[in-house]
Design brief:
By secondary structure, the protein is an alpha/beta fold. The mean pLDDT is 95. The strands form 3 sheets. An 8-stranded mixed β-sheet has the order 1-4-6-5-9-10-11-12, sandwiched between helices. It has a two-stranded antiparallel sheet with strand order 2-3. Helix 3 packs antiparallel against helix 7. Strand 7 and strand 8 form a beta hairpin.
Length: 375
């Protein structure tokens, strides 16, 4: 195996061919479904070293290494030879979620019944539906039990779903900066972002495939979301009230402040790689996710009653999107079921996105946890 991961194994898996479509939680049926994925390392003879990584809201299957166009993976600091998730020890899998726009079936995919992109005719999907599709992929790869499922933010929601939906398939779970359900504030930010997209005249009810895309609305949606991923301290340290390439106010509505210029840049970059409808669908799935309601009849402890995994739960002091008390609630529910759970709150000024950034504390935490889980 190439130690620097310049080459990764990429593939697609298609299943749920009609008439055996996949039943969704909404009651709709979908098929065929294609899941794009990448793998790193080698599965051992016992099949006991597989680690599934679940990406967050706008991520994809390319978690590490240099893929198409030599683009670094979104968690390159954590996944690779000798890193926290060591690809010389573990067989790592990461797939693009159902409803995404990076190779997996989603609203921008071609509807085989019409020959046109689904658009809003694509059925709403849930975190449970995404995990159900991932399970089909893992079965296809002939892996009976995953040594670990790991993910942060919306990826962490998928990890939680794995642990309660397929308890016998998960040996251990790594939950980073996540929650059992969105707060009203988190839902509110997502709704404002969705409205920004739908207010763009180019959105056209989701049917924009043949014309101009709702880039302005999607860029604003990304700017809104990006604010929630940072913290007041990190923004103050990085930008403060510094002006962008000028010594005084321009007295117009151009980007006077550095923070304005930064957010506009983030929005512009985002529209080059992401689909507006996928953003609508994935944020809706995240808002619908409610582990207590869907698996515990309102009780967090009951939701985990069938889980068998060992857990590592990590939160960050400056994460105001999914604050530490939400991670502690997960740990409390786990302890009530007698499950083994390690918890760490990392002191950081970087906000919600801290789990994606280089951190000399997180990597050894994950490395040690995985080594104890490996048979």
């Amino acid at each position: 195996m190439n130690r620097d991961l310049k080459k990764v194994e990429a593939g697609t898996f298609t299943f749920a061919h009609p008439p055996q479509k996949m039943c969704l939680e909404s009651g709709a049926a979908l098929g065929p479904i294609t899941i794009a994925y990448e793998t790193y390392g080698s599965l051992n003879a016992e099949g006991s070293n597989a680690v599934l990584i679940c990406h967050a809201l706008t991520g994809d299957a390319h978690v590490a290494g240099n893929g198409a166009g030599s683009r670094p993976g979104w968690w390159d600091t954590m996944v690779g030879p000798g890193k926290g998730i060591d690809t010389e020890k573990y067989f790592v899998i990461c797939s693009n979620i159902l409803g995404g726009c990076m190779g997996s079936t989603g609203p921008s995919s071609i509807n085989p019944e019409t020959g046109k992109p689904y658009g809003l005719s694509f059925p709403l999907v849930t975190i449970g539906d995404m995990v159900k599709a991932q399970k089909a992929l893992i079965d296809h790869l002939e892996i009976e039990r995953l040594l670990a499922v790991a993910g942060g933010s919306v990826g962490g929601m998928q990890v939680l779903e794995w642990c309660v939906r397929y308890p016998q398939s998960v040996v251990s779970a790594i939950l980073l900066a996540t929650t059992m359900r969105h707060s009203a504030q988190a839902i509110a930010f997502n709704e404002v972002a969705r409205q920004a997209i739908m207010a763009d005249p180019n959105w056209k009810g989701g049917d924009y495939a043949q014309g101009p895309k709702p880039d302005l609305g999607l860029a604003v949606a990304r700017m809104i979301g990006h604010i929630t991923y940072l913290s007041d301290k990190s923004m103050s340290f990085k930008f403060g009230r510094k002006l962008q390439d000028k010594s005084d106010f321009s007295f117009n509505f151009e980007a006077d402040f550095q923070v304005e210029s930064y957010l506009r840049h983030q929005g512009k970059k985002f529209v080059e790689r992401f689909d507006a409808n996928s953003f609508l669908y994935i944020t809706r799935a995240a808002d619908y996710f409610d582990l207590k309601r869907q698996h515990g009849q309102g009780s967090a402890a009951k939701a985990f009653s069938c889980s068998q995994a060992k857990f590592l739960v990590v939160s960050y002091t400056s994460d105001w999107l999914y604050p530490t008390f939400q991670s502690r609630a997960i740990v409390t529910a786990l302890k009530k079921n007698g499950l083994k759970a390690s918890f760490c709150e990392i002191d950081s000024t970087l906000g919600h996105d801290a789990f994606l950034l280089p951190d000399k504390r997180l990597s050894p935490l994950i490395k040690g946890f995985l080594e104890k889980a490996l048979p």
